[in-house]
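dude i think i finally got it to work??
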Amino acid sequence: MKPEIARILIGNVYKPHGVKGEVKVFPETDDPNRFLGLKTVYIGKDVALAKTFQVQTARLQKTAKHTFVLLGLEGVKSPEDAELIKGNAVYADQMALPPLEENEFFLDDLLGMNVQTEEKEMIGTVVEWMESPAHDIMVVQRKQKQDALIPIIPEFLVNIDAENQLVTIRTIEGLID
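look at this
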């Protein structure tokens, strides 16, 4: 049996770029440089159905608001080819990415973790994360209560214990009411 390889969402194809079939990717990582050493990416609407692409070129394009990644992919030779993968997610093998620094994590690593307060009160389980204009948010499913939306920022995230699959948060009035 082939071992399952963990693939991580690292970006989304925003649009074609130029006349040679490059694609402009909006990175889903705080460090777009992670793209620069990749030899293979997987592009699709879902990780399980993503198609394999060999990376021929990767470079950063900095704008006033964002840093985009421009990828040249084997088999994508024209703007029309690039248009076909526009709007799809870009995944990479976790093992192909540079190692994380201490206290860094992939947002997907939070999925399935239990969440507790600093006072050890169990809140629920992380079932999803989503983007917002200000910061990412984790969706915590609670028993017989509405899901709690917890900003993924240092002010609320006290600790992530990967070994015990436990996230400890700091609450403020109204955060989980």
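The mean pLDDT is 91.
im so relieved honestly
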